[in-house]
Fold this sequence. Notes:
- The structure is a single chain.
- About 50% of the residues lie in helices and about 5% in strands.
- The chain is α/β, with parallel strands linked by helices.
- It has four domains: about 1-35; about 45-105, no CATH class; about 150-175 and about 195-380, 2-Layer Sandwich (Nucleotidyltransferase, domain 5); about 385-544, no CATH class.
- Strands 4-3-2-1-5-6 form a six-stranded mixed sheet, sandwiched between helices.
- β5, α10 (about 285-295) and β6 (about 300) form a beta-alpha-beta unit.
Amino acid sequence: MSLADMCRDGVSILHTPVPTGAVLLVMGLVRIRKSISGRRGKLRASSDPTYESRIQAAIQGIANGLYKSIAAAAKEQNVSHQTLSDRCLGVHKPRRLAQESRQLLSAAQEETVVDWCNLASTSATPIHPAKLRASDTIGEFFEMQKKLDDNYNKIPPEHHWNMDEKGNQMGGGRKNTGMKFIFSAEDSDCYRVHSDNLELVTIIECVSTAGAKMPPWFVLSEGPAPDIRDLKDKVGGVSFSPTGWTDHEIADYWFRNHFVPTAEKHCVDPEKPIVLTVDGHSSHEQRAIQRAAYDNGVIIHAFPSKTTHKIQPLDVGMFSSVQRPWTKHCDKCLADGVEIDRYNFIHEYMAIHHVITPELVQKAFKKTGIYPLNLSVFTDKDFAPSLVYQTTTHLPPSYPADIPSSPMAAPSDVDEVDKLMRLDDSEEEDSEDDTDFFPMADDEHDLDSESSDSESEEEEEDAQPSRNDTRITRSTSLVSGSIPHPVIPTYNQAMMLTKEELWYELQHMYEQNGALVQTTQILTAQLDATNAHCTMAQRALAQS
């Protein structure tokens, strides 16, 4: 008999007296022939890309009642019976999730990142891998600072400037000053006079890494101009806008007529450029300012979006140091009978402007890591998303529409108990009644059980798999979100069941346990996906 003949007869091949090596070779050919004929062998998940999909199809088929048992599902889908059984019971996880604890991102987080990458690509704004972490953005900013400093062979600190606007309210604002006052112990209500003037004045401050500060620039709302002739050398200038905020024209005028002349006075090396670091407001990046910067040898460097609270010196170390003295000064003026308005605001503000000292400025630059340059000034904790953060934005399609914040409500078991009591009465009347003591999943199964009584004995013998299908259907409702209370039979009811019926009930308990484990995994994945989406939403807004 040739090898080809033996391969065609896979049953009798083991009875053919051939050497051991030939047997191994022939068995290998048989497996190859079976694979070629369309009957695939049981491959491992690591070598078969469709293995996991077949496992999932088998689990879904068991839940839907397509297969009568785990063995039938394993045979039909050509997967390992033990693996399928363990997966149904929740003993093992898929290969993709088995090592999830060792991964940097969970499976839900990976899917979220992919969804955001797809969303960005469809909007013609693809995400660069370096942009996936905020720390990479900060690192890129510091690398640009270092590269700029190296290209010009150490730019002097007198040439590095930081500019930003601060809004001050004429009444001092509503923040608490932290001061303590004496009240009578008999007074249940304690009051203190505080100004309610919330009119806004914008102040443009600019400081250098050497500790120098430029005279502040003020932006008032449209109206009469205050008399500041006595502050000519202390104030940079005054502008007016409809809202009291800066606009493109004011920013351009400030840059050309105040910043450039003042910064040139502080230059110590004409061969080195002047560097101005600003936030990404549109008024700072307009073409007019870019043209003026190019003409005057000024390099403008913008902070990454949504990071100025950490790396902008004016925000980190100076504006907060000015706000509390300003609020105290406003309260003192009100106590002295002096009302702060647009005519005396600048004078009163300059009275506390001395709190911005060279030491404070240098400390702020050092804290942000800008000067001296410190690339490791921040840790991973500084880039963690805010735990209390809400926003509205566009989200990928996979974002869950409804995430339960509490355990899912179980359906009422009153109907199930009623059915069980009716079952007890029927068993007393007719001991041969083979009605399952477990309640059906819905009324549809009750109609099926009533119609089955009028059928032949052969059809009644085939009714046992149908009962197993009913239990599997209940497991499907469990996976989809409805967790029924288990109904425990009485001792007499259990004794009336045959061994086969007890085996089916035990099998049902295992399947229900597996469905509970699967439901828990689904809810856990939804929660992980929600947390991951919040993180990605914040980072997406940071890039906008």
